[in-house]
Design goal:
With about 190 residues, the chain is mostly helical. It is built from 7 helices and no strands.
Length: about 190
């Protein structure tokens, strides 16, 4: 009789432990989704700044049509990405960051543009959004790390396999040049 109670107790403890691990997976998956949502919001804020910034710059940079087109094309590619995964989205966002970096670098050659208050406001807003993207990316990648550790660790990997929890993708930029935040300082 005692043996059956011990076995029943172990089964109950095992079931409670499995429920706790399952709930940890749910919590971590939600944190990953929340982190991705935060990145998405900041990327949309940046994309919304670009058309007005380009309009301000066009009047000053008549000879820099290629740079303006590169930013416009990169922005269009990002907006056309829709709900792609972090790997594809980070590649497209890296192209946009690079194009914006070139735009800012070329703007250095136009003293009147550097003094334009509207452009200075866009520059400040862009820097603020870039900082928010960086913070959002750190939060998201931390959440992804926590979920991935649960998916790969024993015994939680048993629950992950049983309930089809999978590793999430990190949001990383492909090369070192794209990792740099565009320098938007005109001092």
């Amino acid at each position: 009789m005692e043996l059956s109670w011990i076995i029943l107790g172990l089964i109950v403890i095992g079931a409670i432990y499995a429920i706790i691990i399952y709930n940890n997976f749910i919590k971590n998956r939600q944190l990953v989704e929340e982190g991705w949502s935060g990145i998405d919001v900041q990327l949309k804020r940046r994309a919304n700044l670009i058309p007005n910034m380009l309009e301000t710059v066009k009047g000053y940079m008549g000879h820099e049509k290629g740079v303006l087109e590169a930013v416009t094309n990169a922005r269009a590619a990002v907006q056309g990405a829709g709900n792609t995964g972090p790997a594809e989205r980070s590649k497209l966002e890296g192209l946009l960051s690079g194009a914006l970096g070139k735009l800012i670098a070329v703007a250095e050659n136009y003293p009147d543009l550097k003094a334009n208050t509207t452009f200075l406001e866009f520059q400040g807003s862009l820097q603020m959004v870039e900082d928010e993207i960086q913070l959002s990316r750190r939060y998201y990648n931390g959440s992804v790390r926590n979920l991935n550790v649960l998916v790969e660790s024993f015994p939680s990997n048993l629950i992950a396999n049983a309930f089809k929890f999978i590793k999430a993708e990190y949001f990383e930029l492909e090369n070192e040049a794209e990792r740099a935040v565009p320098d938007v300082s005109f001092n």
